[in-house]
Amino acid sequence: MSRSVLVTGGNRGIGQAIAHELAAAGDNVAVTYRSGEPPAGLLGVPCDITDSTQVDAAFKQVEEAQGPVEVLVANAGITKDQLLALMSEDDFSSVLDTNLTGAFRVAKRAVRGMMRKRTGRIVLVSSVVGLMGSGGQVNYAASKAGLVGFGRSLAREIGSRGITVNIVAPGFIETAMTAALPEERQAEIKKNVPLGRYGSTEEIAKTVRFLTSDGAAYITGAVIPVDGGLGMGH
Prior knowledge:
Catalytic activity: a (3R)-hydroxyacyl-[ACP] + NADP(+) = a 3-oxoacyl-[ACP] + NADPH + H(+)
CATH topology: Rossmann fold
Largest sheet: 7 strands, parallel
Keywords: Fatty acid biosynthesis, Fatty acid metabolism, Lipid biosynthesis, Lipid metabolism, NADP, Oxidoreductase
GO biological process, one term: fatty acid elongation
Pathway: Lipid metabolism; fatty acid biosynthesis
Number of helices: 8
CATH class: Alpha Beta
Helix content: 40-55%
Radius of gyration: 17 Å
Domain Ketoreductase: 3-176
CATH superfamily: NAD(P)-binding Rossmann-like Domain
């Protein structure tokens, strides 16, 4: 049976690839987006996840269209990179508010229905940066590391209700952002990746598809690195 799926930040990059992958598996997929246009063929729901009222309204729209959310992928995120000595308090707090507190808002809203049905899948999209650290990204790394503690704590809270919570930690992935980097910087990055290349958004999407499948029913609280070996040991 098709499940009701919601992917936050699902209109570009990794989020869009995840949304299409789950739709291809037969699920009814909705995506939230803050700007731009939603992917063709998917239910697009405008939502700023820093606003609890908008989050609640988005869930109500999804519930009316395809039923209570059974699979949540918390993917929406932003970066505001800067050295700590030059970083404003707003640049720090806004990244945490979107990447970490935003995941809290959508997960809190999603677990209501999941607990009633005693089943559900939650996947949080973190980053290898949250495990290894990265100069100039103390705000981003803190938010992504926070998702690990958040996800594992939630997994312990709701595991008895048949709900799994897992974390995916992508490395450097082929996106518009990485494509814009100078060739020298791209070569330097790839040199530090044991597999010697960027990952693809599809590789992240297939990992998420597995974690939301019946085959992963006994996996919860896990951090799955999809980073070409960059963060091994973390």
